[in-house]
Design a protein that fits this description.
about 450 residues, alpha/beta, 18 strands, 12 helices
């Protein structure tokens, strides 16, 4: 039996991608001196001709001049901070590129889309191996790049499974080398994938190796067999065109946190790019569909329950859920109410949402009192409101609740408020020993 080499692993990955609809070409073929050149030089990261064609197809009603301005804006993202560049591009990609123009004395703007997230068939999907990149006189050649409309959204680094020194950690370290040597590639990166032939994990450009995780299901119904290569499961489950675009648009968040240096007193803002894990992706999508159905004309108004284990990223799942629900056309700009039963939990969850405003496209608000809650909920549409369930209790002597709204698109998320969902009247009941029939204590019953 011949040993599995890195080349064979690379070919296996390419074949899997081709079976999902990715077009394939070797990097040397489209190089500046190749058979069918698509690059002017080795410093060029984006396949600009492919991008121009895609932008023209996706934005047929926008003038060509505005299309070109949008493309140049993408090509001219420069700063010494790799993650800042990545965040700027991600925002342009997801929110479209605004190109201003004057009409009837008013300033308006064209919104140029680089990717058609709604109609997958309007995009080009290309897998390229051995794509040589030169930056600052340093020559690097990533194993596999996945281009969508000429934009390299995914980098895949593979290591020889037959080499005991070529581990998944060395694949991760190779990504770090690329970040230092050819940082321009990562301006456009959405997902990094590393594999040693046995393990295969995905993570963001800012993630440490402990944040890289396996994609354990190819369809979201059950985990793949442990005898199936993890690389195959990840490619089928995560890198199929539909899922990859969904992840890029709805399951990536840039979180900003403030940290004060205790020695200098200087406050620094740290940015972290977070990519959803497979269980978050599948759970959120099912929850969104369930919520859309439940809030419809014939819906029963019950979205369902998502069960989480400790440490599985519940708060982030709620952020991804809210973010995708807000953009769902069926929901018509919903209001989202997040309910907890403790102030500390309310604060903690609010902070997670507050540092994820780019994905949520709005600032969440925290109800300060019962009256403030009523005011926040009496809106025509939109908004993310945080409150404790106690603020819904009637005031002393009040038996009739005010109707705050009759809209169908107010979505309530209860987080650990289950302990207060059994009614407002509680009583003490005797606990009786079964054998002696003696009262041995009391319990609270609702």
């Amino acid at each position: 039996m011949k040993p599995i080499t890195e080349d064979k692993l690379e070919q296996f990955a390419i074949e899997q991608l081709q079976s999902l609809g990715w077009e394939y070409v070797h990097g040397s073929v489209i190089s500046p001196d190749g058979e069918k050149p698509e690059r002017e030089n080795y410093e060029q990261i984006i396949l600009t001709d492919r991008l121009r064609k895609a932008v023209s197809v996706i934005n047929p009603h926008i003038p060509q001049e505005a299309q070109e301005q949008a493309i140049q804006k993408v090509l001219r993202i420069y700063s010494p901070d790799l993650l800042h560049n990545n965040e700027i591009f991600h925002q342009l990609l997801v929110e479209k590129i605004k190109i201003p123009y004057q009409q009837d004395g008013y300033e308006r703007s064209y919104e140029v889309a680089l990717i058609d997230f709604e109609n997958i068939e309007n995009n080009q999907f290309l897998v390229v191996n051995q794509y040589t990149i030169v930056e600052n006189n340093v020559n690097k050649r990533p194993d596999i790049l996945l281009f969508v409309n000429g934009i390299p959204l995914v980098v895949i680094e593979l290591k020889n499974p037959a080499n005991e020194n070529a581990t998944i950690e060395s694949a991760f370290n190779q990504i770090q080398t690329y970040k230092a040597a050819i940082p321009s590639l990562f301006t456009y990166n959405a997902v990094c994938v590393i594999s040693d032939g046995l393990e295969c994990k995905a993570g963001s450009v800012s993630a440490g190796i402990q944040r890289f995780t396996a994609w354990k299901s190819s369809e979201g119904e059950k985990e793949a067999s442990r005898f199936k290569p993890q690389l195959e499961t990840l490619i089928k489950g995560m890198l199929n065109p539909k899922t990859l675009l969904d992840i890029t648009r709805n399951f990536i968040v840039f979180q900003k946190t403030k940290r004060e240096d205790p020695k200098t007193g200087i406050t620094q803002i740290k940015t972290e790019k977070i990519l959803a894990a497979y269980h978050q992706y599948y759970a959120v999508n099912k929850a969104v569909q369930s919520t859309i159905k439940a809030s419809g004309v014939n819906g029963d108004k019950r979205g369902g329950v998502v069960w989480h284990t400790q440490g599985s990223g519940k708060s982030l799942s709620m952020v991804f859920f809210a973010g995708k629900l807000i953009t769902a056309p069926e929901m018509e700009n919903p209001t989202i109410v997040v309910i907890t039963d403790r102030n500390d939990l309310d604060d903690q969850l609010f902070d997670t949402f507050a540092i994820s405003t780019q994905l949520l496209r709005q600032e969440p608000k925290q109800a300060e009192s019962r009256d403030d809650l009523k005011k926040l909920l009496k809106v025509a549409s939109g908004g993310i409101v945080f409150t404790t369930i106690q603020k819904f209790l009637p005031e002393a002597g009040q038996e009739i609740y005010d109707q705050l709204s009759d809209r169908h698109n107010i979505i309530v998320i209860a987080d650990e408020a289950h302990r207060t969902q059994y009614g407002f009247k509680a009583s003490l009941k005797d606990v009786v020993d079964k054998e002696s029939k003696e009262v041995i204590g009391q319990r609270i019953a609702y």
